[in-house]
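Letters spell out the chain; the tokens describe the backbone. To illustrate:

===
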Amino acid sequence: MSDKDRFALLLEQHQRILYHVSRLYARTAPQREDLAQEIALQLWRSFPAFDPARKFSTWMYRIALNVAISSLRQDRGAAVSLTDAAELPAADRVSDEAEELYRRVAQLEPLERSLVLLYLEGHSFPEIGEILGITATNASTKLTRIKQAWKGTA
């Protein structure tokens, strides 16, 4: 299997990462599409350095989140907000509870947003730490503080 075919297969298997990261870091459907394409491009450019002994999803999250955060920094003037549910295709619409969660997560700082996304995706604190470049203890502490802050505003 060629590198191109292997990359395409891995990207297809982990496309939900593109969806979730783009949804949390871009404001509109066109911006989400652009961000997903930019992430895919950066993944392809970095693919020769990917170590197959490591988890592809961990590597992909690290690159995707770095690209998304860089994109936010370039677009500092625009506040990150979610689009109306009516703008989303039916397959991308979520429940009212999920929309509320997206709203709360979108208000967090970029690193905290990444942490919550990874936690909700079921990653362990050691995995979250590896992806974000922080310790597992730091990841756990930050998440506990986010939960406490949300309880205070519920």
Q: What stands out?
A: The helical segments are 3-13, 15-25, 29-46, 56-74, 96-106, 110-120, 125-132, 136-153.
